[in-house]
Amino acid sequence: MSKGKPPGGRGTSGNGTSGKGTSSGARGPSGRSGRQSVKSRSLTTKVKTARGRKLSSTLWLQRQLNDPYVKQAKAEGYASRAAYKLKEIDDRHGLLGMGKRVIDLGAAPGGWTQVSVERTGSTPENVLVVGIDYLKMIEIPGAIILEKDFLDDDAPQQLMAALGGEQPDVVLSDMAAPTTGHRKTDHLRTMHLVEVALDFAVRVLKPGGHFLCKTFQGGTEAELLNIMKRRFRSVHHVKPPASRSGSVELYLLAKDFIG
Fold it and tell me: Which residues are CB-contacts of 230 (< 8 A; sequence separation ≥ 6)?
């Protein structure tokens, strides 16, 4: 569950280098804009296709090297650009807050967990954030990280125990199945993870809590949406600016759990 992996990479984790942003250059006098555009192109890092590396992986690497969100994440100490996706969603929809308890499914490499710790005020003495992923993660002060597959039978019980038996206010899931290159297959596999995450959320969330999960464009199963609409007061499709415009990823946000 790892995020930010190149096409075909292993993992079902989430917060990959969740990046956003576009830039535009100002036009100058006649002839000047041409020089500016050439200069801009010269600053773009190009990656040669290495022997044994697929073109799709080369293009992914080139996007990473030139992504302003990737650079910003490195400068600000976030594990991935995915941090800015959660920040943007939270700024608009108000999911997180001081004192709230959060469970982060598919947490690697840790961007969403870091943002959750910051925005809830979680500390090593009063842990409010628990993350889980079978991929190894960095240590995040203020969070408990379980290096475990969320699909394991005992994972839900261990998550709740790590949270001290308290009901979470927010369940996050940036999980995505390893891609095969076949869009319909990838969509179905990821929708299975969405269903499992939703089932967990409706069993553990505090009334009034929120559920946010990643899916892919291509249609969300009607039954899944019906469950969300019955159990939450509102359901939204969200694509934050940090999500690349060419990406098929989309987020489902279910707010105000009825219980």
Answer: 258
Domain range enclosing 159: 82-257
* Phi (first) and psi of residue 55, to 5 degrees: -60, -40
Q: Tell me 4's DSSP state.
A: S
Identify the CATH number of the domain in which residue 86 sits.
Answer: 3.40.50.150
When mean pLDDT is compared across 16-20, 103-107, 136-140, 236-240, the lowest value belongs to 16-20
> How much is the average pLDDT of 33-45?
40
Residues 214, 190: one domain?
yes
Residue 156: asked if its preceding bond is cis (omega within 30°), the reply is no
The Cα 18–Cα 38 span in angstroms is 29
Q: Which tokens in the block code for residue 202?
A: 């409706």
What is the CB neighbour count within 10 angstroms for residue 97?
A: 12
Whether residue 219 sits in one domain with residue 96:
yes
Same domain for 117 and 181?
yes
Options 85, 87, 214, 255, the catalytic residue: 214
Query: What pLDDT is attached to residue 60?
Result: 46
CA–CA dist 58, 44 (Å, integer): 14
Contact 86, 107 (CB under 8 A): no
Of 55-69, 112-126, 183-197, minimum mean pLDDT range: 55-69
155 neighbors 148 (Cβ within 8 angstroms): yes
Number of structural domains the chain divides into: 2
Q: Can you tell me the distance from the alpha carbon of 217 to that of 232, in angstroms, rounded to the nearest whole number?
A: 22
Is 73 a member of any domain? no
Residue 46: active-site member: no
Phi and psi (nearest 5°) for 49?
Answer: -70, 115
